[in-house]
Write a structure and sequence with these properties.
heterodimer; A: UDP-galactose 4-epimerase, domain 1; 4-stranded mixed sheet; 11 helices; B: UDP-galactose 4-epimerase, domain 1
Chain lengths: ~375, ~350
Amino acid sequence: MPMKQKVALITGVTGQDGAYLAELLLGKGYRVHGIRRRASMFNTGRIDHLVHDPHEAGPRFELHYADLTDSTSLIRVIEQVQPDELYNLGAQSHVAVSFEEPEYTANTDALGALRLLEAIRILGLQKKTRFYQASTSELYGMVRETPQRESTPFYPRSPYGVAKLYAYWITVNYREAYDFYACNGILFNHESPLRGETFVTRKITRALARIRLGQQQFLHLGNLDARRDWGHARDYVEAQWLILQQDQPDDYVIATGQARSVREFVELAAARLGIRLSWQGEGPAEVGRVESCSGEEPALQHGRVIVRVDPRYFRPSEVETLLGDAGKARAKLGWSPRTRFEDLVQEMIDADFEAARRDSLVRSHGYSTPDHRE
Amino acid sequence: MRTALITGLTGQDGSLLARLLLDQGYRVVGAVRRSASANLWRLEELGIHSHERLSLKSFDLLDAERARRLIVDVHPDEVYNLAAQSSVGASFDEPMLTLQAVGAAPLHLLEAIRQTDPRIRFFQASSAEMFGLPRSAPQDEDTPLCPRTPYGVAKTYAHWMTLSYRATYGLFGCSAILYNHESSLRSREFVTRKITDSVAKIRLGKLDCLSLGRLDSRRDWGYAPDYVQAMHRMMQADASATYVLATGRATSIREFASIAFRAADIEVEFEGSGLNEIAVDRRSGRTVIRVDPALYRPVEAEQLIGNPARAQAALGWQPSVPLERICSEMVAADLRRNAAGASL
């Protein structure tokens, strides 16, 4: 007899992880529901290909309007959907913005998680609905040990980290107090071509691609020596799913175990475009110059400055090297990252170069393309 | 003249701190929730409700704009954030309100201070509940936080926010990790005051029996007037820091109840175990304590004992009143109040 079709509900489905996770679950035969916020601009670009799949008999992917800051909207959708698995990926997920909007960050990231847990409790679904909370390596902030693992004490350094820490603990609390199947995945940075354009990796690949094609002058960055543990989002959503398939709920660190600097990321991405960089100066005065440039496109001039440091991008309080130890996930979930750092950078720069080429083509025929700025 | 703004002024710590600061010549502004039934009995008992240097301003903890206006209008030298939804038990029923009341208010105040005058000093009343279920005792400022109740999780949010504003913006932000601290001004929903009030009522023949949760639960109970003293001292230091305020000694609820009955001249004896445990008045043979599992917490924090060594070394502070005296002071106040007819 075929197994009953599982139902998943995803908050943050319009984001990077939501898109990859929805695709993964649809591939596993799930019926997938996503929560979207209303906006005056289309915000479903990452999942439109899932919504309009004409090969499926019935709609297996459905979007609902609701908001993490609106309890009753969440209760309504959860009641209607009756999910077997609820993935809370929605958040104000940008660390720098959290310093500007600390209260909104708390309302969405901290209270949002609580609203979902309370909705499950109010609806009496705690025996049915498994809950995944997207926790983050930002919880470790001012790191107490390296690498960081599940037992490492937290020390958040930003309103984002503090709000996410609340969500982490309230998830543990509902597991202990009410016997929820509720889990945290403590995910270290994970990137992809779908990463938001304001995150540093995507900002680098977009800017370099556009510089290479003469659409942009400079790439402005903050701390070039900040080190992060970067994995591929596609691998990480698989861990999210695995975490909810275990006999017992638990919390897991998901990471590659390798830290790379922003500088390394820039060099690798540039190299893929045929650009070799040389660095000059120090601190805010440091610049990256074109040492050599090859490839089909017109070469960038030798010695031209294309990377600059802008202190505005220094974080008010920078976290130190974040490096995760995913030993527990490897042992208990059988999970390990598949994508090498080099391949991640390549996939991202290729996608952004493709997009930039398309823009060049459009422009060369007299049409304009949007010039998104931060 | 120095000015202090206190949230939660009508509570136990707020009223005790207000008296301390008034005695030291401060102008004290209390930010209190407007209510049709004013809750000023503590200020009245302390005799400061009509003090010329004390004023009250309405403040709802959830109102960010009001927080900013208060900071601008009052322009205090020191802000003490003592207000909270402070019941651990209620936090399981009202987790949302608990986070908003406990977490949003300090955030609003810190933001207002940062944006208007970063010299204003900020005090956050943090809680030992942030340690949750510690594996070892005593706990100090370096013990990892593992909160296990919605109240504890919310207090952890406020604690980290205070530290975050200290690190990011250089604000003077103190966080005191307070262990239980009691006085006759404790509200009756807390177990100590519930015990002393019930003991007084039993002594006066107004109540037969007291129902309690887990009798084995142990707490590190200090004397609230000592603790507000420490709050004030850490706000006068050169640099802001985090301090554990505790006695370092834990006592079971069973023992506290015995002491309370003794203070009312009633000797009790415990019989049975677990849910069937009772306490009997030796003289009359009447049952005066029963166990009610409805009063058990979903998650119980055990082994909460604090090490106040840093406060001792840096602030010259130490707890001055032993539990027996705290307890007898509380029982005496409740005997007086109940004999007069009213107990708040």
